[in-house]
Amino acid sequence: MKRILLSLALIFSTITMQAKTLVVYYSYTNNVHNIVTELTKLIDADVVRIEPMEKGLDYAANNYAIGSALISAIRNNPYDAASYPAIDPVNVNLADYDCIIIGAPLWWSNMAAPLQTYLFHNGAAMAGKKIGLIVSSASSGISGVEGDAKRLIPDGDFLSPSLWIRSSQTSNASSMLNSWLKTIGYYAMTGVEDISADQNIGKYTIFSVSGAMVAKDALSLQNLEKGLYIVNGEKIYLK
Q1: Rounded to 5 degrees, what are φ and ψ at 147?
Q2: Deepest of 49, 77, 173, 183, by most Cβ within 10 A of its Cβ?
Q3: Which CATH class name applies to 21-189?
């Protein structure tokens, strides 16, 4: 019993010490929301969804006229707070995080206006932090969104490359996210070991990041979904 309690203590202390990633996103069509949902199956992160303060707006009406006007206002005067649409208050302490992943829809070659508002007011607090950028768009390239992110977070340590997931690729987001996380070195950066289902990790009890026991030995890995687990107090990503 003492050994079990010690293992559980190690698990939750590991989660507490390494839960240093924040995902911030905005989503109107829910493409980015679906991408973030897949992302949180792969990493241990807190999540904040940005919401416009003005509710009930139909951004799709009249060929997205409202969104176009919001982007034009920012382009015309990007350093004036009045250019940015109001958003709901966000209660998060950015000092608690080492890595921030931004999920951004593309509007007229730029980052969606409500998300720009959040970064305009909070970008300075992200100085020196690892910044990952995921962009969703129908077809346009993402260089404008990358430019917005670097303008709004001028002292961020941007992870390269950014991830571009086209709307038609959203259903394949999980594998694209997994490849991207490996490319930017996310697992190594956050102390997560990357293993395959047929790799022998020994006779360890395996827990989900929520603390639920899901398997008792290496053979059971064959039956687990890919994702983040705790093995002997250490995080692993099962690919």
Answers
A1: -65, -40
A2: 173
A3: alpha beta
Q: Is 39:23 a contact under the CB 8 Å cutoff? A: yes
The domains of the chain are located at 2-12+191-238, 21-189
- Residue 170 phi, psi (nearest 5): -60, -35
Nearest partner of 236 among 184, 203, 201, judged by Cα = 201
193: closest CA among 221, 229, 226, 235?
Answer: 235
Other Cβ atoms less than 10 A from the Cβ of 57: the count is 13
The 10 Å Cβ neighbour count of residue 220 is 13
Distance of CA 169 to the CA centre of its chain: 17
Q: What phi and psi, each to the nearest 5 degrees, are found at residue 159?
A: -80, 135
Q: Which of 2-6, 145-149, 206-210 has the lowest mean pLDDT?
A: 2-6
pTM score, whole prediction? 0.76
25 phi, psi to nearest 5 deg: -150, 165
Q: What is the pLDDT of residue 189?
A: 83
| Predicted pLDDT of residue 3 | 47
Three-state SS string over 45-95 comes to CEEEECCECCCCCCCCHHHHHHHHHHHHHHHHCCCCHHHCCCECCCCCCHH
Residue 178: helix, strand or coil by DSSP? Answer: helix
